[in-house]
Automatic annotation (TrEMBL):
Swiss-Prot/TrEMBL keywords: Endonuclease, Hydrolase, Nuclease, RNA-binding, tRNA processing
UniProt keyword tRNA processing, yes or no: yes
Pfam families in UniProt: Ribonuclease_P
Catalysed reaction equations from the record: Endonucleolytic cleavage of RNA, removing 5'-extranucleotides from tRNA precursor
Subunit field text: Consists of a catalytic RNA component (M1 or rnpB) and a protein subunit.
SUPFAM superfamilies referenced in this protein's UniProt entry, alphabetically: Ribosomal protein S5 domain 2-like
Name of the gene: rnpA
Chain positions covered by the region annotation Disordered: 1-51
Protein name, entry field: Ribonuclease P protein component
EC class of the enzyme, as a word: hydrolase
Family assignment from sequence similarity: Belongs to the RnpA family.
Species annotation: Sphingosinicella microcystinivorans
Enzyme Commission designation: 3.1.26.5
Length: 157
């Protein structure tokens, strides 16, 4: 005797009724209560554009052939692209520094440093690569900012 002979041919109905809105509408949020969207500025005024990111290995290798400035918290590599484009910045931290958590913490510090200071310091049409060093984790942020300004001036000569 087969168990299949005793299975119903109709599918079971859902146990709960589907959710339907009330006759007066959904009481969760009144309709039409929000006004028109607020006007937003088209572009930031007086703020330098954020540098693009270097992602391709060939760009990192090309920057390695350029000028170099060594500081306590990082090494700055710079290369003039001479193509009239904008500033591009890349970040790298070797495994000698620590595990991925430590490396990512250092890269976050360097990214914050660059986004805050680099637009005013960098020369146009240049690629910059910051190689994180172990002291960059514990070095005071103001000292890192001063180091970046000094390093950019050094590679610009």
């Amino acid at each position: 005797m087969s168990d299949e002979a005793h299975l119903p041919t109709e599918q079971a109905r859902p146990q709960t009724a589907p959710r339907l809105p009330h006759a007066l509408g959904d009481a969760g949020r009144p309709q039409g209560s929000g006004g028109p969207p607020r006007a937003r500025p088209q572009a930031a005024v007086g703020v330098a554009p954020k540098p693009e990111r270097l992602r391709a290995r060939r760009d990192f290798l090309a920057a390695n052939k350029g000028r170099r400035a060594v500081t306590d918290g990082f090494i700055l590599l710079a290369r003039d692209r001479a193509d009239g484009g904008g500033v591009r910045v890349g970040f790298t931290v070797t495994k000698k520094i620590g595990n991925s958590v430590v490396r990512n913490r250092l890269k976050r510090r360097l990214r914050a440093l660059v986004s805050e200071s680099m637009p005013a310091l960098a020369s146009p049409a240049h690629d910059y690569v910051l190689i994180g060093r172990e002291a960059g984790l514990t070095r005071d942020y103001a000292d890192l900012t001063a180091d970046l300004a000094r390093a950019v001036r050094k590679v610009a000569r």
